[in-house]
Design a protein that fits this description.
- The protein has 244 residues and is α/β, with parallel strands linked by helices.
- It contains nine helices and ten strands.
- The strands form two sheets. Strands 1, 2, 3, 4, 5, 6, 8 and 10 form an eight-stranded parallel sheet that branches. A two-stranded parallel ribbon has the order 7-9.
- α1 (27-39) packs across α7 (206-213).
- The longest helix is centred in the middle third of the chain and has 19 residues, at 131-149.
- The N and C termini lie far apart (48 Å).
- Residues 236-244 have low confidence and may be disordered.
Protein backbone atom coordinates (compact mmCIF):
# COMPACT_ATOMS: atom_id res chain seq x y z
CA UNK A 1 0.00 0.00 0.00
CA UNK A 2 1.38 3.38 -1.00
CA UNK A 3 2.22 5.65 1.94
CA UNK A 4 0.46 9.02 1.92
CA UNK A 5 2.57 12.09 2.59
CA UNK A 6 1.56 14.34 5.47
CA UNK A 7 -0.41 17.37 4.32
CA UNK A 8 -0.46 20.39 6.66
CA UNK A 9 -2.68 23.35 5.77
CA UNK A 10 -2.44 26.46 7.97
CA UNK A 11 -4.85 29.32 7.31
CA UNK A 12 -4.11 32.90 8.38
CA UNK A 13 -7.01 35.24 9.17
CA UNK A 14 -7.30 38.53 11.02
CA UNK A 15 -10.96 39.03 11.82
CA UNK A 16 -14.41 37.77 10.87
CA UNK A 17 -16.88 40.57 10.14
CA UNK A 18 -19.57 41.65 7.64
CA UNK A 19 -17.43 44.66 6.65
CA UNK A 20 -13.71 44.37 5.98
CA UNK A 21 -11.58 47.06 7.63
CA UNK A 22 -8.43 45.06 8.43
CA UNK A 23 -8.86 42.32 5.81
CA UNK A 24 -11.65 40.57 7.73
CA UNK A 25 -13.60 37.71 6.13
CA UNK A 26 -17.42 37.74 6.08
CA UNK A 27 -18.91 35.10 8.45
CA UNK A 28 -20.76 33.23 5.71
CA UNK A 29 -17.61 33.06 3.60
CA UNK A 30 -15.60 31.90 6.62
CA UNK A 31 -18.04 29.05 7.23
CA UNK A 32 -17.98 28.02 3.55
CA UNK A 33 -14.18 28.03 3.54
CA UNK A 34 -13.91 25.81 6.60
CA UNK A 35 -16.58 23.46 5.29
CA UNK A 36 -14.58 23.12 2.07
CA UNK A 37 -11.42 22.25 4.00
CA UNK A 38 -13.30 19.66 6.08
CA UNK A 39 -14.82 18.15 2.94
CA UNK A 40 -11.30 17.48 1.68
CA UNK A 41 -10.63 15.19 4.63
CA UNK A 42 -8.56 17.51 6.85
CA UNK A 43 -8.59 17.09 10.62
CA UNK A 44 -8.70 20.34 12.62
CA UNK A 45 -6.00 21.06 15.19
CA UNK A 46 -3.97 23.95 16.62
CA UNK A 47 -1.03 25.55 14.85
CA UNK A 48 1.72 23.95 16.96
CA UNK A 49 0.13 20.51 16.81
CA UNK A 50 -0.19 20.84 13.04
CA UNK A 51 3.38 21.85 12.25
CA UNK A 52 5.11 19.77 14.94
CA UNK A 53 3.07 16.58 14.56
CA UNK A 54 4.36 13.48 12.85
CA UNK A 55 1.29 11.43 11.95
CA UNK A 56 0.74 10.75 8.25
CA UNK A 57 -2.59 12.42 7.46
CA UNK A 58 -4.23 15.68 6.51
CA UNK A 59 -4.32 18.31 9.24
CA UNK A 60 -5.46 21.93 9.13
CA UNK A 61 -5.20 24.83 11.54
CA UNK A 62 -7.05 28.15 11.70
CA UNK A 63 -4.92 31.03 12.97
CA UNK A 64 -5.77 34.65 13.71
CA UNK A 65 -3.18 37.42 13.88
CA UNK A 66 -3.26 40.56 16.04
CA UNK A 67 -6.29 40.03 18.31
CA UNK A 68 -9.14 41.73 16.45
CA UNK A 69 -12.29 41.31 18.53
CA UNK A 70 -14.42 40.05 15.64
CA UNK A 71 -12.35 36.88 15.50
CA UNK A 72 -13.96 35.94 18.81
CA UNK A 73 -17.34 37.57 18.32
CA UNK A 74 -18.06 36.04 14.91
CA UNK A 75 -15.35 33.44 14.32
CA UNK A 76 -15.43 31.50 17.60
CA UNK A 77 -19.09 30.34 17.31
CA UNK A 78 -18.50 29.02 13.77
CA UNK A 79 -15.32 27.22 14.77
CA UNK A 80 -17.04 25.59 17.75
CA UNK A 81 -19.98 24.53 15.59
CA UNK A 82 -17.60 22.85 13.17
CA UNK A 83 -15.45 21.31 15.91
CA UNK A 84 -12.32 23.29 15.10
CA UNK A 85 -9.98 24.89 17.66
CA UNK A 86 -8.27 28.15 16.81
CA UNK A 87 -4.85 29.64 17.38
CA UNK A 88 -4.78 33.31 18.37
CA UNK A 89 -1.51 35.17 17.89
CA UNK A 90 -1.75 38.20 20.19
CA UNK A 91 0.09 41.48 19.94
CA UNK A 92 0.21 42.91 23.45
CA UNK A 93 -0.39 46.52 22.48
CA UNK A 94 -3.82 45.49 21.15
CA UNK A 95 -5.10 45.15 24.73
CA UNK A 96 -5.42 48.93 24.91
CA UNK A 97 -7.63 49.23 21.82
CA UNK A 98 -11.41 49.34 21.88
CA UNK A 99 -13.16 46.24 20.50
CA UNK A 100 -9.92 44.25 20.36
CA UNK A 101 -8.98 41.24 22.49
CA UNK A 102 -8.57 41.74 26.24
CA UNK A 103 -6.34 39.90 28.74
CA UNK A 104 -9.36 38.22 30.36
CA UNK A 105 -10.32 36.66 27.01
CA UNK A 106 -7.18 34.53 26.87
CA UNK A 107 -7.88 32.03 29.69
CA UNK A 108 -11.39 31.55 28.30
CA UNK A 109 -9.98 30.64 24.89
CA UNK A 110 -7.53 28.21 26.46
CA UNK A 111 -10.43 26.52 28.26
CA UNK A 112 -12.12 26.08 24.88
CA UNK A 113 -9.09 24.32 23.42
CA UNK A 114 -7.47 27.27 21.67
CA UNK A 115 -3.74 27.87 21.46
CA UNK A 116 -2.46 31.31 22.44
CA UNK A 117 0.71 32.42 20.66
CA UNK A 118 2.74 35.60 20.51
CA UNK A 119 2.53 38.23 17.79
CA UNK A 120 5.18 40.25 19.71
CA UNK A 121 4.59 43.20 22.01
CA UNK A 122 4.40 46.12 19.56
CA UNK A 123 4.30 44.42 16.12
CA UNK A 124 7.57 45.57 14.53
CA UNK A 125 8.94 43.91 11.40
CA UNK A 126 11.42 41.65 13.17
CA UNK A 127 13.82 41.37 10.25
CA UNK A 128 14.37 45.15 10.47
CA UNK A 129 15.02 45.59 14.21
CA UNK A 130 18.28 45.32 16.14
CA UNK A 131 19.18 42.26 18.23
CA UNK A 132 18.16 43.78 21.57
CA UNK A 133 14.73 44.86 20.31
CA UNK A 134 14.27 41.49 18.65
CA UNK A 135 14.93 39.65 21.89
CA UNK A 136 12.76 41.98 23.96
CA UNK A 137 9.80 41.65 21.58
CA UNK A 138 10.01 37.85 21.57
CA UNK A 139 10.81 37.19 25.22
CA UNK A 140 8.64 39.92 26.75
CA UNK A 141 5.51 38.91 24.86
CA UNK A 142 6.00 35.21 25.60
CA UNK A 143 6.45 35.80 29.33
CA UNK A 144 3.40 38.06 29.57
CA UNK A 145 1.15 35.64 27.67
CA UNK A 146 2.29 32.79 29.89
CA UNK A 147 1.44 34.89 32.95
CA UNK A 148 -2.02 35.66 31.60
CA UNK A 149 -2.92 32.13 30.50
CA UNK A 150 -0.98 29.98 32.97
CA UNK A 151 0.16 27.91 29.98
CA UNK A 152 3.45 27.72 28.03
CA UNK A 153 3.61 30.01 25.01
CA UNK A 154 5.75 28.22 22.43
CA UNK A 155 4.40 29.58 19.13
CA UNK A 156 5.01 32.96 17.52
CA UNK A 157 3.60 34.65 14.43
CA UNK A 158 6.09 37.02 12.84
CA UNK A 159 4.58 40.47 12.11
CA UNK A 160 3.86 40.88 8.37
CA UNK A 161 4.87 37.23 8.06
CA UNK A 162 8.52 38.12 7.47
CA UNK A 163 11.29 35.96 8.92
CA UNK A 164 14.92 35.17 8.20
CA UNK A 165 17.63 32.98 9.77
CA UNK A 166 18.51 35.59 12.42
CA UNK A 167 14.90 35.94 13.54
CA UNK A 168 14.44 32.17 13.61
CA UNK A 169 17.53 31.78 15.80
CA UNK A 170 16.24 34.49 18.15
CA UNK A 171 12.86 32.75 18.34
CA UNK A 172 14.54 29.50 19.38
CA UNK A 173 16.62 31.32 21.99
CA UNK A 174 13.45 32.97 23.32
CA UNK A 175 11.80 29.59 23.89
CA UNK A 176 9.63 29.13 20.81
CA UNK A 177 9.32 25.83 18.96
CA UNK A 178 6.93 26.89 16.19
CA UNK A 179 6.82 30.02 14.04
CA UNK A 180 4.08 31.24 11.71
CA UNK A 181 5.12 33.14 8.60
CA UNK A 182 3.46 33.96 5.28
CA UNK A 183 4.12 32.73 1.77
CA UNK A 184 6.77 34.72 -0.06
CA UNK A 185 8.03 36.36 3.16
CA UNK A 186 10.46 33.67 4.31
CA UNK A 187 14.17 34.22 3.79
CA UNK A 188 15.56 30.89 4.89
CA UNK A 189 14.66 27.25 5.28
CA UNK A 190 10.98 26.38 5.54
CA UNK A 191 9.93 24.30 8.54
CA UNK A 192 8.17 24.43 11.91
CA UNK A 193 9.92 27.72 12.81
CA UNK A 194 9.09 29.29 9.44
CA UNK A 195 5.78 27.84 8.34
CA UNK A 196 4.23 29.38 5.19
CA UNK A 197 0.61 30.00 6.13
CA UNK A 198 -2.07 30.65 3.53
CA UNK A 199 -3.18 34.25 3.98
CA UNK A 200 -6.95 34.70 3.50
CA UNK A 201 -8.44 38.10 2.67
CA UNK A 202 -11.99 39.37 2.82
CA UNK A 203 -12.19 39.74 -0.95
CA UNK A 204 -11.12 36.17 -1.71
CA UNK A 205 -13.92 34.30 -3.48
CA UNK A 206 -14.46 30.64 -2.60
CA UNK A 207 -12.83 29.75 -5.90
CA UNK A 208 -9.74 31.81 -5.01
CA UNK A 209 -9.71 30.23 -1.54
CA UNK A 210 -9.78 26.73 -3.03
CA UNK A 211 -6.93 27.65 -5.37
CA UNK A 212 -4.81 29.09 -2.55
CA UNK A 213 -5.32 25.96 -0.45
CA UNK A 214 -4.61 23.46 -3.22
CA UNK A 215 -1.48 21.40 -2.79
CA UNK A 216 0.04 22.41 -6.17
CA UNK A 217 -0.23 26.13 -5.34
CA UNK A 218 1.11 25.61 -1.83
CA UNK A 219 3.92 23.58 -3.36
CA UNK A 220 4.89 26.56 -5.51
CA UNK A 221 5.03 28.75 -2.41
CA UNK A 222 7.34 26.21 -0.80
CA UNK A 223 9.75 26.10 -3.73
CA UNK A 224 12.32 28.57 -5.03
CA UNK A 225 9.41 30.15 -6.92
CA UNK A 226 7.71 31.28 -3.70
CA UNK A 227 8.80 34.92 -3.94
CA UNK A 228 7.84 35.57 -7.59
CA UNK A 229 4.63 33.60 -7.03
CA UNK A 230 3.77 35.77 -4.02
CA UNK A 231 4.47 38.96 -6.01
CA UNK A 232 2.17 37.83 -8.80
CA UNK A 233 -0.56 36.90 -6.31
CA UNK A 234 -0.26 40.25 -4.52
CA UNK A 235 -0.45 42.15 -7.80
CA UNK A 236 -3.50 40.17 -8.88
CA UNK A 237 -5.16 40.87 -5.54
CA UNK A 238 -4.56 44.62 -5.82
CA UNK A 239 -6.01 44.63 -9.34
CA UNK A 240 -9.05 42.65 -8.21
CA UNK A 241 -9.71 45.07 -5.35
CA UNK A 242 -9.46 48.08 -7.65
CA UNK A 243 -12.01 46.57 -10.01
CA UNK A 244 -14.39 45.48 -7.25
Amino acid sequence: MRRRHRDVLVLCYHGIAPASVHGEVEPGAFRAQLEHVASRGYRWTTFSEAVLGSEEDRVAAVTFDDGIGTALENGLPILEELGAPGTMFVRLDAFAWEDWIKPEDLPRLVERGWEIGSHTSTHPVLTDVDDVTLRDELVGSREELERLTGKPCTAVAYPTGRVDARVMAAAVAAGYTAGAALEGAIDGKLGPLAWPRVGIRGDDSLQVFRLKCSRPVRGLRSSWLRRPTARIASSAGRTRRRLA
